[in-house]
Amino acid sequence: MNTQDKPVTSYLEAPTRTVTANGVTFAYRELGPKGGIPVVFFVHLAATLDYWDPRIVDAIAADRHVIAFDQRGVGATTGEVPDSVEAMAEDAYAFIKALGFDQVDVFSFSLGGFVAQALIAAHPDLVRRLVLTGTGPKGGKDIDKVAGLTYLDILKATVTRSDPREFLFFNRNAAGKRAAKAYVARTTGAHTEVQDAPMKVKGFQTQLGAIKKWGRGTPHDLSRLTQPTLIANGDHDRMVPSVLSEDLHRRIPGSELIIYPDSGHGGVFQYHEQFAPVAAAFLNR
């Protein structure tokens, strides 16, 4: 094998590629050994390719082909941001099929977890194994309040010249502040290639509207979800309340639940050293 054939093993070194489906040119990055079923990463509100924590991505890509992508209208992907989670799921389906895959595993966080659930509801045979982190079910209590909380924390971040994720994802105690600074450092300007385009305000507002609709929507029958599912969160998630992770666990047959102590929405990032190997082992079963 020459060096050009060796798989990329670091997310921060993964080149950005494109593929077109349904008139949308999707930007994506891939790493890890190709072959078999890939793990597709579904990202959170207002996030581009640059927002994934390499500590988690690289751990899973050690043994698996990993793909992360920008949703329609986000980052370097063309088009307008969809106004519903279900439309985002159809975009994800088109993207996955354009890459030639009939089955994938999904790792999702926050809004990405909503999209993953909508994708499975519409295309149940596409997803083999599922990881849901910092997320909740359709119609989940208080999900529709995310917009108000998000704007408040963005204001706090602006006043303190901080990254909004420090407030949105982490507790504001000593441990949370340390974890927040480390996470932001790992995910800000670290990619070796050109940085992804930032989220536009209009698209951000459209995503918030889609989240509100999801929170007020008719719940899915999650008892029909047959995929092995790993659910994880912090014990003090203000964005998507932690009780909703427990609700998912009760409703998804055979699911596994991890709740990390003294942590918030980004609990899996605060506890990446513990969580990454667990997630990798689950996806490799």
UniProtKB/TrEMBL annotation:
> GO molecular function, one example?
catalytic activity
Q: Which InterPro entries does the record associate with it? A: AB_hydrolase, AB_hydrolase_1, AB_hydrolase_fold
SUPFAM superfamilies from the UniProt entry: alpha/beta-Hydrolases (SSF53474)
- Database matches in Pfam families: Abhydrolase_1 (PF00561)
Q: Where is the signal peptide?
A: none
Q: Which residues form the AB hydrolase-1 domain?
A: 39-268
This one is known as Pimeloyl-ACP methyl ester carboxylesterase
